[in-house]
Design brief:
This protein is an alpha/beta fold and 319 residues long. The chain has 10 helices and 8 strands. It has 2 domains: 211 residues, Spore Coat Polysaccharide Biosynthesis Protein SpsA, Chain A (Alpha-Beta Complex); 70 residues. Helix 5 runs parallel beside helix 8 and helix 9 packs antiparallel against helix 10. The longest helix is centred in the C-terminal third of the chain and has 33 residues. Uridine-5'-diphosphate binds next to strand 1 and helix 3.
């Protein structure tokens, strides 16, 4: 290696009740980082854990100056934790990595090499397969990516993980996106930059429990649609357009029938069906609009994304 100063690497680790897996994680990641010989920091974001997560972090921070932590005043969610990490990371290269070792630290040397030697600004990982995941979950996930790519302008890859290593300029761009309703997969795609996709085999969680229930994931997917696409809003206009056309044709039909055959009263049941059908569509469309209005409401309140209760960083950026 030359005399050239090596780039500092920050690793952001959102943690929510991860006491079982954190010791394993720390050991593994420290081993990998030491072997690379770059200056580094491990920035743990304790997202309001109720277990011993914070205690462990404080203990390690005293023994190892590479260990930095931020702790939130309550659980703000992984998105807020990642944002807090990106705002407070000081490295030239910044990685986001889950605490459960589903994002293998062994990939880091290769990722760093790609950023240093090739003309990329970011190395993102995606899963090769969805092996070991419930089939229903996989099906919904696949559909989500298909629809998302069709209706939004943020390019999101199927199986993309949040695990990625980015250059400083990309991190700065992401930090400038201050929206309250954050959907990182969309944000990463939206800011652009040259991204290298690195596939790897699915890894099971090393210990502890996943914090994502099916419904939490489902809501996360809806969040993605609403934050990165306006297509659902135009559904109402399309329904309206179609219905008006249909009504016009029916009107012509009824007038002609009246002129030719008189007007025997019939079709009460079908009339009710049509009324209910149209009522349903109207409610659905109002609901879609309501979702967007709710987003506008939470954005305009301008609340902070997270509140830091404690940290061993000298200068903590609240945000
Ligand atoms: N996480 C978090 N806040 C939350 C939920 C999760 O910081 O409210 C963290 C969690 O500690 C882990 C990462 O986000 O490091 C991914 O969570 P998990 O492994 O539960 O998700 P999965 O891998 O099942 O998608
Ligand atoms: Mg996980």
């Amino acid at each position: 290696m030359s005399e050239e100063k090596k780039a500092k690497i920050s690793i952001i680790v959102p943690c929510f009740n991860e006491q079982e897996v954190l010791p394993l994680f720390l050991e593994k990641v420290t081993e990998v980082m030491k072997s690379m010989g770059h200056p580094y920091e491990l920035l743990f974001i304790d997202d309001g854990s109720k277990d011993r997560t914070l205690g462990l972090l404080q203990e390690w921070a005293e023994q190892d100056e590479q260990v930095k932590y931020l702790t939130f005043s309550r659980n703000f969610g992984k998105e807020a934790a990642m944002y807090a990490g990106l705002c407070n990371a000081s490295g030239d290269y910044v990685a986001v990595m889950d605490a459960d070792l589903q994002d293998p630290p062994e990939l880091l040397p290769q990722m760093v090499r790609i950023l240093e030697e090739e003309d990329y600004d970011c190395v993102a990982t995606c899963r090769e397969t969805r092996k070991g995941e419930p089939p229903v979950r996989s099906w919904f996930a696949k559909k989500f990516y298909q629809i998302m790519n069709r209706i939004s302008d943020a390019d999101i890859r199927d199986g993309a993980r949040d695990y990625r290593l980015m250059k400083r300029k990309m991190v700065d761009a992401i930090v400038r996106m201050t929206e309250y309703n954050r959907f990182s997969k969309g944000i990463f795609g939206w800011v652009g930059f040259r991204t290298y996709w690195l596939p790897y085999g699915n890894v099971e969680r090393a210990a502890g429990q996943s914090k994502w229930s099916f419904w939490k994931l489902f809501r996360y997917a809806l969040e993605g649609f609403i934050n990165f696409s306006h297509v659902p809003l135009s559904i109402a206009s399309w329904f309206g357009f179609f219905m008006t056309g249909l009504a016009f044709v029916m009107l012509v039909f009824i007038v002609v029938r009246k002129l030719l055959f008189g007007d025997p009263v019939a079709g009460w049941a079908s009339t009710i069906c049509v009324i209910i059908f149209i009522g349903g569509i109207q409610l659905f469309c109002t609901g879609v609009m309501g979702q967007y209005i709710a987003k506008i409401y939470s954005e305009t309140k301008n609340r902070p994304h997270y509140i830091v209760a404690d940290s061993n960083l000298d200068d903590v950026k609240q945000g």
